[in-house]
Amino acid sequence: MKYNRRDFIGGSLALTSTFFLTPMETYSTTSSRSEKWTNGFALKIMAPYWGFNGSVTDFCKKAKDSGYDGIEILWSPEIAEELFKALKKYQLDVGFLCRGDEALPVPHFATFKKVLKEAIEHRYQKPLYINVHSGKDFFQYQDNKKFIDFTVQYAKETGVPIYHETHRSRMLYSAPASLQYLAENPDLRLTLDISHWCNVSESLLEDQSETVALAISRTDHVHSRVGHAEGPQVSDPRAPEWKQAVEAHFAWWDKVVAIKKQQGEILTMLTEFGPPSYMPTIPFTNLPVADQWEINVYMMQVWRKRYL
To answer: Which InterPro entries does its entry note (predicted)?
Structure first.
């Protein structure tokens, strides 16, 4: 049988993944297990539409079959009818990503408000939450603060939680940049994607523990991608070379979960390992070095084993 270069690479990657899988038990213990918590804690794990090659209906079916509680997807009115039919058919929760992208504060904020209202004020299924990419890293503080003020009030009016993601290029792109927003806006609630902060700071944030602790205390939603000092996503969290980064992220997530268990509140989590070019690739082929869906399902299973 003849093999071309692509066949060889694909086979080699499959073997590599098999030999270097990290046993789930490696990350299955946590110091918070002995702590008492009030009734009401729940963990909802969401599947990312980002990187899926197929229809929204196919995605919802695959998410359900894989064991997810719901999905997170960029809001778009163009897919609304198909999306909500699929959500109902497969009995899935939904969280929406909303954002503006304009380079000037005024039109950006106008788009942001418009998209948020579309995602919430429709006749279909109420979203479990809204995750927002808010503002820009180059906007002035007062311009970015408008996004916080609007979402705090709008969440109270609608009853839909709105979380600001710690995301590169946005308002909360790094730990030091986020500190003022957290300190001066006590009602600011977060989607903690701490992989971005690791990448921006070229570290596992060992010297910014106070800011990280403050962010953890404001977190209601987690994007459980593992980053490192030189990138927002390790190639495969099961590989032994990423042990330090994986353990650092789980130490942060342990604290988030412990707070939610103590408070008896819901925590939502998105398994957000992404496709190329977040996922490293083989040169000249653009083939991903690991399977995105498989890694995300692995993360879902580890979280369930560790925290439930």
So the answer is: Xyl_isomerase-like_sf
CA 80 remoteness from chain centre: 22
Asked if residue 17 is part of any domain, the answer here is no
Which tens digit of pLDDT belongs to each residue from 83-108? 999 999 999 999 999 999 999 999 99
| CA pair distance 272, 48, nearest whole angstrom | 6
- The closest alpha carbon to 112, from 138, 140, 132, belongs to 132
pTM (two decimals): 0.89
Instruction: Sort strands 266-270 and 42-48 into parallel, antiparallel or unpaired.
Output: parallel
Pairing state between β 281-282 and 287-288 = antiparallel
Domain that holds residue 209: 37-307
Contact 226, 4 (CB under 8 A): no
Burial of 16 (0-12, 13-18, 19+ CB in 10 A): middle
Residues paired with 281 in a beta bridge: 288
Tell whether 18 is covered by a domain: no
How many Å apart are CA 81 and CA 87, to the nearest integer? 10
Selection from 60, 55, 103 nearest residue 79 by Cα: 55
Rounded distance, CA 49 to CA 91, Å? 16
| CATH code for position 121 | 3.20.20.150
> 10 Å Cβ neighbour count for 11?
11
The reply to whether 24 falls in a domain is: no
Task: Provide Rg for the chain, Cα atoms.
Answer: 19
